[in-house]
Amino acid sequence: PWPISGSLGALATTVGGVMYMHSFQGGARLLSLGLIFILYTMFVWWRDVLRESTLEGHHTKVVQLGLRYGFILFIVSEVMFFFAFFWAFFHSSLAPTVEIGGIWPPKGIGVLDPWEIPFLNTLILLSSGAAVTWAHHAILAGKEKRAVYALVATVFLALVFTGFQGMEYYQAPFTISDSIYGSTFFLATGFHGFHVIIGTLFLIICGIRQYLGHLTKEHHVGFEAAAWYWHFVDVVRLF
């Protein structure tokens, strides 16, 4: 029943969000109910997946292959999602219109120094990618404790990255409403930061499962998905 309940939760969230933004009565209540329904569905659905894979042994080689293909397609859809933001940025920067002064960055926009927090944050995120690769090799070698240490290091670096990202937003001399520059900057980096937070939660769950002995060198599809997702986040950051 979880796909149906998740769809109903998404529908309630969408309708409630539109009602709330147009000041309709009950919009906030419907929005909150939809979000709670989605979170509940996520929890119980993933709980069942863990039971099927870890305790009941239903995740055969064929099932694991299907999960890998499905997650690859999900990452491809995410690539298309971010491609839209990159297209908007490059289109606006390579051919600036007269409305923004015909130059890039637009007139009156003070930009961030790319060699300060942005560069440091890029190094931190790439280091976390190296740490998650270390964890993967540790799992393949059957070294459970080393894998846990590597995942702890990855999560720590991810939290540091998120903290610096928040500091960067706080110090930014422009806002999301400051022309196309502010819009593309905050949308692209904001959604990237959101993906970092989701990936961090993903890795925390993998760390807990590794500590509990759920992941083995023969069966760790959940961790592979988390690692692929994290490397995708790394690549997006480079752009």
Please describe the structure with a list of short key phrases separated by commas or semicolons:
mainly alpha, 2 domains, single chain, Four Helix Bundle (Hemerythrin (Met), subunit A), about 240 residues, globular, Helix Hairpins, about 0% strand
Q: What features would you describe in this structure?
A:
This protein has 239 residues and is mostly helical. The chain has two domains: 58 residues, Orthogonal Bundle (Helix Hairpins), CATH 1.10.287.70; 179 residues, Four Helix Bundle (Hemerythrin (Met), subunit A). It contains seven helices and no strands. Helix 3 packs antiparallel against helix 6 and helix 6 packs antiparallel against helix 7. The two termini are 39 Å apart. 21% of the residues are buried. The mean pLDDT is 88. It is a multi-pass membrane protein. It comes from Gossypium hirsutum (Upland cotton). Keywords: Membrane, Mitochondrion, Translocase, Transmembrane, Transmembrane helix. GO terms for molecular function: cytochrome-c oxidase activity. This is Cytochrome c oxidase subunit 3.
What's the SSE blueprint?
Layout: H1 2-21, H2 27-55, H3 61-94, H4 117-140, H5 144-171, H6 179-211, H7 221-238
In short:
By secondary structure, the chain is mostly helical. The chain contains seven helices and no strands. The longest helix has about 35 residues.
Strand portion = under 5%
> What would the average pLDDT be, to the nearest integer?
88
Radius of gyration: 21 Å
Query: Which structural class do you get from the secondary structure elements?
Result: mainly alpha
Q: Quote the CATH topology of the largest domain.
A: Four Helix Bundle (Hemerythrin (Met), subunit A)
Distance between the termini: 39 Å
Tally of individual helices? 7
What is the ordering of alpha helices and beta strands?
HHHHHHH
The profile of the biggest β sheet is: none
**Would you identify the CATH H-level superfamily of the largest domain?**
Cytochrome c oxidase, subunit III, four-helix bundle
Q: How helical, in percent, are the residues?
A: over 70%
Number of domains: 2
CATH architecture of the largest domain: Up-down Bundle
Shape assignment: globular
Query: CATH first level of the largest domain: which class?
Result: Mainly Alpha
Number of strands: 0
Q: Which spans of ≥5 residues are poorly predicted at pLDDT below 50?
A: none
